[in-house]
Amino acid sequence: MQKPLKILVVRFSSIGDIVLTSPVVRCLKKQLNAEVHFITKYSFKSVVEHNPNIDKIYTIKDSVSEVLEELKVEHYDWIIDLHNNLRSAQLKRIKVKSKSFKKLNFQKFLLITFGINTMPKIHTADRYLDSILHLGVVNDGLGLDYFLSKKDEIDLSNFENQYITFAIGGTHFTKILPTEKIIAICNKQKKQVVLVGGKEDFERGEEIVKSCKNVTNTCGKNSINQSAFVVKNSDLLITHDTGMMHIATAFKMKIYSIFGGTHPNLGFIPYVPNPGNKIIQVENLSCRPCHRFGKSNCPKGHFKCMNLIDENLFTE
């Protein structure tokens, strides 16, 4: 009997990108019966630690050199590099066969700088899957995976039976609605709204609660996976273009996704979406997208991509 392939999948960050690799991991495991290892940053280990399709997880804090000697003795058959940067290039020193994800940086440059859209109409998750087609793997069409454990389950008794979650954070300013806009959206909801986010979102969450009639702030109180549990049990997630959007997509739930300085054409809309989903954005704004990840301020100073978002689009 032929020995199963041993494959190292590489994605160091961030939450959403790591979640989008889950079809690759699943297809390698289910279709090839491969031994699948995964390497990521230590701060994102919780995103993959409960995935039954991953046999072993390696983490780094700063450099691949932290684990390079351990990786050498694994004798991998393939490295599937879904990050494709200078850090992941160091893994080539293991001297095994590798295949890298095509980042389409030139196409993104044309879209952001000149508004010329030559991006393929292919989701990033599908482009990740393209990196393993040479192994005879096909897309199984099952979408994304996200796995929680019993320790991630928290008491939901303070929430109404039917509630809405709102992921109010984002890695960059141009991905985040102004607080006044979030308040207006929350006050249009008929159900309880539960705010989810990190510690950096707590104070803003408190400001929102003070101006709303039925909002609960959990920002900074739960782990990523505990927040995911809160989201999973809600009726709807309202979210910026963030990792929680992709986690919720794995749960096959309804999502209202807000795009400001970024744009769906960059390939990060919900994957295999729920038919009730909405993409909410200001259409035909020539300065969008201003960056593929978002920026620390509005380059034009007017922030129209968020200030002009129609609050009435968030009613069910």
Looking at this protein, list some descriptive labels.
6-stranded parallel beta sheet, Rossmann fold, 316 residues, alpha/beta, 5-stranded parallel beta sheet
Largest beta-sheet details: 6 strands, parallel
Shape by Cα distribution? globular
Mean pLDDT: 94
Structural class: alpha/beta
- As a percent range, the share of strand residues is 15-25%
State the end-to-end CA separation. 55 Å
Count of discrete domains:
2
State the assembly state of the protein chains. Answer: single chain
By CATH, the topology of the largest domain is: Rossmann fold
Helix share bin: 25-40%
Number of E strands: 11
Taking Cα atoms only, what radius of gyration do you get, to the nearest Å? 20 Å
Per CATH, the class of the largest domain reads Alpha Beta
The poorly predicted ranges are: none
CATH-derived architecture of the largest domain: 3-Layer(aba) Sandwich
Number of helices: 12
CATH superfamily of the largest domain: Glycogen Phosphorylase B
User: Could you spell the SSE succession in H and E letters?
Assistant: EHHEHEHEHEHHEHEHEHEHEEH
Sheet with most strands: strand arrangement: 8-7-6-9-10-11
